[in-house]
Amino acid sequence: MERILEPEVMDTEAEALEYDAMDFLSINTVFAQQALALGPMVGNILDAGTGTARIPILIAQLRPEWQIVAIDLAQSMLAIAERNVIAAGLEKQIRLEFVDAKHLPYADHCFDGVISNSLLHHLPRPQIFLQEVKRVLKPQGFLLLRDLLRPDTPEQLDQIVNQIGPDYSDRQTQLFRDSLQAALTLPEIENLAQTLALSDLKIYQSSDRHWTIERHYIHR
């Protein structure tokens, strides 16, 4: 099935509210726990495409020794993220910044780890972001990138969308469908991952609708 791009930035208040209301707690918790297993006990972490900051909040609650820079290019998402971070009492641990992930304003090799959930399907040229990830990641740094898989056929897409159940509004369902159509296939991700040029990368399909790129922190 052909990739159909969606807008790179979801930056209306209505879209941000719809997104934040979607129940991703179980899969976000798995992602957070996986990041903790890959990373060091103490570190400076970048979360690219943080959205409404649900994942860094989960991580910060479990690993107070991490300092997290959480970035997004949607002001509406960051506005909700700020409320969420304040409500969780994590303002000293999570720093929210309005930043384009394709042009990171950070020094080379400054992060112990980079994480990103559901960002790449928003990017027309994901390799630009991956080049930036490689630049800002320390040589021993860990990596955890996850996103949706594009189904092979429209029938498979319908089947996945129908599985999310009646709890989602029509708008939320359409957002999910659009994201699946904009997502990448596993072979496309494997090809793009060459941009990272990192040792010990693991690239795999992690669910019926997700791919994952991971790399353990290298302790010296």
TrEMBL record:
CDD domains per the UniProt record, alphabetical: AdoMet_MTases
Record InterPro entries: Methyltransf_11, SAM-dependent_MTases_sf
Pfam family for this entry, one: Methyltransf_11
GO function term, MF aspect, one: S-adenosylmethionine-dependent methyltransferase activity
GO terms of biological process kind: methylation
Keywords: Methyltransferase, Transferase
PANTHER family per record: 2-METHOXY-6-POLYPRENYL-1,4-BENZOQUINOL METHYLASE, MITOCHONDRIAL (PTHR43591:SF24), METHYLTRANSFERASE (PTHR43591)
Start and end residues of each Methyltransferase type domain: 46-144
Biological source species: Woronichinia naegeliana WA131
Name used for this protein in its record: Class I SAM-dependent methyltransferase
